[in-house]
Inverse folding.
């Protein structure tokens, strides 16, 4: 009897592999819902144990993450249109959002963190921005702060409002000065436009020459630029004042105890279904329904 050639051996090997793959695929796809239900009923106690363990896990997660409280302080921010004149919607939004930008600025939040630390209110400074939020209703802006301690949440919100007002108080005078200097610049520019290029030139602005007016215009322009920069973009027509202080919250905003318990039970249930239908369980416990 002759020995098979190498090509014959390759064909035999491939046939063997195809047969093995067919068996594995048949085993994988041979899923019976009825059999799965039978196993789940027979090993119900395993599913129940895993559901209990899942709910215990949910309770542990809840206790490791205490409830969060939210407190809200208020600021009143509006625009004096008798001073600014008619503004487009975009200009109004820009004026208000500039104020909010400073309220949320790093300088303000760092000062809030420093004052909170001085009052022994502990929180992660780097995550303070994640604990805060702004919300607008009409001319009222709500400064919301979340903390695990309700009293600390209320105090942080009040500190934030106080520091915000103080920050705006430092910016607003520069806006007023820039406005007054702008009016002065406009008057100088008007005088310059009335002049004729004859030296010496006299006009209603007094004994001012064209050269001296140009020098003053240049100086006032530099002052206006610096004051506008120091104002942080705040317009003189903005109106701001403290609103209602924060109240100590009574109930947490995140009380997910029941949700975590239910989620843990559902995870335990799904794991239990997978366990009772695994081949490993058949090796450990012989299922009389499968005989």
């Amino acid at each position: 009897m002759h020995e098979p050639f190498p090509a014959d051996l390759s064909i035999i090997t491939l046939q063997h592999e195809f047969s093995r793959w067919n068996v594995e695929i048949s085993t994988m796809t041979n899923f019976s819902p009825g059999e799965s239900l039978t196993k789940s009923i027979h090993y119900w106690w395993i599913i129940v144990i895993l559901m209990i363990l899942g709910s215990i896990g949910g309770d542990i997660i809840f206790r490791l993450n205490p409830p969060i409280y939210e407190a809200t302080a208020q600021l009143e921010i509006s625009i004096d249109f008798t001073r600014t004149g008619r503004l487009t919607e975009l200009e109004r939004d820009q004026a208000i959002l500039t104020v909010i930008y400073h309220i949320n600025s790093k300088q303000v939040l760092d000062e809030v963190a420093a004052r909170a630390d001085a009052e022994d209110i502990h929180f992660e400074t780097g995550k303070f921005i994640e604990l805060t939020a702004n919300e607008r209703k009409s001319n009222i802006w709500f400064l919301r702060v979340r903390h695990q301690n309700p009293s600390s949440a209320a105090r942080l919100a009040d500190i934030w409002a106080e520091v915000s007002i103080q920050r705006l108080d430092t910016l607003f005078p520069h806006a007023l000065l820039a406005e007054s200097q702008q009016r002065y610049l406009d008057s100088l520019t008007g005088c310059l436009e009335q002049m004729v290029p004859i030296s010496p030139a006299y006009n209603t602005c007094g004994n001012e020459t064209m050269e001296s007016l140009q020098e003053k215009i240049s100086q006032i322009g530099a002052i206006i630029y610096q004051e506008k920069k120091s104002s942080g973009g705040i317009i003189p027509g903005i109106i701001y004042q403290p609103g209602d202080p924060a109240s100590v919250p009574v109930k947490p905003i995140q009380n997910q105890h029941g949700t975590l318990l239910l989620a843990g039970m559902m995870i335990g249930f799904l794991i239990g279904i997978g366990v009772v239908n695994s081949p490993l369980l058949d090796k450990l416990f012989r299922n009389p329904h499968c005989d």
The mean pLDDT is 79. DSSP finds ten helices and four strands in the chain. Residues 178 and 223 are 8 Å apart (CA to CA).
